[in-house]
Each structure stands twice: as structure tokens, then as C-alpha cells.
């Protein structure tokens, strides 16, 4: 099992850093899956038990100038690592404006993902800063626990309003209740609502647009004005919106009525899915 990779382009390094920074704000630990073509950051808390789930996919060719790996076996050319994304984020912060960044799997006092950043220097001697990030290698027999989450047929899919606007609204609402009702319909309308014994507050967005149906979701029989809704933990939603450092080209929300909210961020170099279960 071997892995080594190299980034030479500062723009690619900054983009990768923003993705990792986003992941670090969403979870304390996650699984990094390495394949020949892609990297995946995964969090697979049991949604059925109230936990969130995350799936972030990156095409390695959009970030790395060199990328070599050998999986755990000839018939399983993949590597699964558990790590603390904040450790990776801190290491990448020291590599901003680096001339190059090398990453490889090493064996120190424990398995490590070692990053070596070559920093600019006024002298002819280069400065290299090295970080050893402890990781746990996940055995092959457990890989089935880390597959892409299944997206159930949703009732409504809608494009989100400007994320900063949505975040500002929810930042104000979080002081009123622990829960928020997010509802939307197939006419481009979305409402954010707080309802308690003392107060009722709602914010309305219109003309957001709906992604085209794929035939398997958003059944054609559903009325365009019918609202699908989910009551979610407002802190989990706020955490997700506050984490974003990658400016997505598209941001969508899929609602499974009274069961789940599924957010999708699409970027030219990466995609991020985030699942928040509905509360009773």
C-alpha cells in the first residue's frame, strides 16, 4: 500500500485547501478514500439515528500534478484512512503560496499522511515545512460501511438563494428555537419557519427555480404548489452553511417530506453532498 502526490500550482493548492477547510468545519473526524482517479471525504453517521451524513468527491486530476497510489491489494486499488480534518487543514494553512506540496503515506510512530511544503526563500536554500498527520488505516472488511449514501426519491428539488443571505437569516433564527422548518415546492418557492409557543417567524424566497426532473424523483403527479417540508436541527443547518469556503457554481436542496433534507454543492473541481435528517 503506497500513496504519494504532488501539487505545483498555487491555484490548485488554494482550491484544495478551501475544500479541506470546509470539511474540517463540518466534522471532527472523517474517512478519506483514495482511488486512482478520485479522492473522497466521507462522514457516515447514521441518519436514521439523527446523525448527519456527508460525501465530498474530488477529481484528483483537477488538483494534483502527480498522483501515484497502490491499494491494499491488486483487486482493490483503494485506500481508506480515518483522520482529523482539522489537522490536515492546519498543515495546509502553512503551505499557502508554497512552491510545491508533496503528500505521501509514511510509517512513523504510527501511520501518517506526511505533507512537505516547499516555501519561497530569499536564499538559494529552499525551506521545507513537514507535517505528519496521524491516520488510521481502515481494513478492507469494513469498506462496505463507507459507500456513497443512497439518495431516496425526493419530493421537491430547488435551487437555493444566495448562501450568505440564507446563513444570515438562520443566524438570527437560531436564537429563537432549536428547530427550523424548511419547506419548498416545485414552483421555485422556499420558506424558512420558526414556530414556538411564544413566536412565529418565517422568511419567504420566490423564483429560485427548480432543477429539471430526472423522471425518478419529484413525481409528475405532485402539484406544483404543494410544499414538501422537513423540521431540522437548526444548529446542524447553521454549521453546514457556516462551513462553506468553496463558492459553488450550483447549490441545490432536495427534500424528502418529513424525512430528510439533502444539500448538493456543485463546483467545477468538486462536489459536496450533505444529509440532515428530519426531526419528529
UniProtKB/TrEMBL annotation:
A single GO BP: mitotic DNA replication checkpoint signaling
Record localization: Cytoplasm, Cytosol; Nucleus
Keywords: Cytoplasm, DNA damage, Nucleus
InterPro entries, alphabetized: DNA_clamp_sf, HUS1, HUS1/Mec3
One CC-aspect GO term: site of double-strand break
Source taxon at top rank: Eukaryota
Keyword Cytoplasm: yes
Task performed by this protein: Component of the 9-1-1 cell-cycle checkpoint response complex that plays a major role in DNA repair. The 9-1-1 complex is recruited to DNA lesion upon damage by the RAD17-replication factor C (RFC) clamp loader complex. Acts then as a sliding clamp platform on DNA for several proteins involved in long-patch base excision repair (LP-BER).
Subunit (UniProt): Component of the toroidal 9-1-1 (RAD9-RAD1-HUS1) complex, composed of RAD9A, RAD1 and HUS1. The 9-1-1 complex associates with LIG1, POLB, FEN1, RAD17, HDAC1, RPA1 and RPA2. The 9-1-1 complex associates with the RAD17-RFC complex. HUS1 interacts with POLB, HDAC1, FEN1, PCNA and RAD9B. HUS1 does not interact with RAD17. Interacts with DNAJC7.
Family of the protein in this entry: Belongs to the HUS1 family.
Protein name: Checkpoint protein
Amino acid at each position: 500500500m503506497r500513496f504519494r502526490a504532488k501539487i505545483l500550482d498555487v491555484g490548485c493548492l488554494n482550491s484544495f485547501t478551501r475544500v479541506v477547510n470546509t470539511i474540517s468545519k463540518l466534522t471532527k473526524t472523517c474517512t478519506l478514500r483514495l482511488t486512482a482517479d478520485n479522492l473522497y471525504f466521507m462522514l457516515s453517521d447514521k441518519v436514521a439515528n439523527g446523525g448527519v451524513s456527508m460525501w465530498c468527491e474530488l477529481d484528483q486530476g483537477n488538483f494534483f500534478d502527480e498522483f501515484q497510489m497502490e491499494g491494499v491489494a491488486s483487486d482493490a486499488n483503494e485506500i481508506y484512512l480515518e483522520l482529523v480534518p482539522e489537522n490536515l487543514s492546519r498543515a495546509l494553512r502553512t503551505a499557502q503560496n508554497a512552491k510545491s506540496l508533496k503528500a505521501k503515506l509514511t510509517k512513523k510512530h504510527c501511520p501518517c499522511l506526511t505533507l512537505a511544503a516547499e516555501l519561497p526563500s530569499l536564499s538559494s536554500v529552499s525551506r521545507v515545512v513537514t507535517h505528519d498527520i496521524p491516520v488510521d488505516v481502515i481494513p478492507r472488511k469494513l469498506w462496505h460501511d463507507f459507500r456513497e449514501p443512497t439518495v431516496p426519491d425526493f419530493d421537491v428539488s430547488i435551487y437555493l438563494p444566495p448562501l450568505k443571505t440564507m446563513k444570515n437569516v438562520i443566524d438570527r433564527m437560531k436564537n429563537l428555537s432549536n428547530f427550523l422548518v424548511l419547506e419548498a415546492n416545485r414552483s421555485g418557492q422556499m420558506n424558512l419557519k420558526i414556530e414556538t409557543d411564544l413566536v412565529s417567524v418565517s422568511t419567504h424566497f420566490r423564483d429560485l427555480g427548480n432543477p429539471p426532473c430526472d423522471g425518478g424523483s419529484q413525481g409528475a403527479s405532485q402539484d406544483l404548489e404543494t410544499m414538501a417540508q422537513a423540521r431540522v436541527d437548526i444548529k446542524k443547518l447553521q454549521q453546514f452553511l457556516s462551513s462553506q469556503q468553496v463558492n459553488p457554481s450550483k447549490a441545490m436542496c432536495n427534500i424528502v417530506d418529513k424525512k430528510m433534507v439533502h444539500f448538493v454543492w456543485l463546483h467545477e473541481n468538486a462536489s459536496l453532498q450533505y444529509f440532515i435528517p428530519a426531526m419528529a
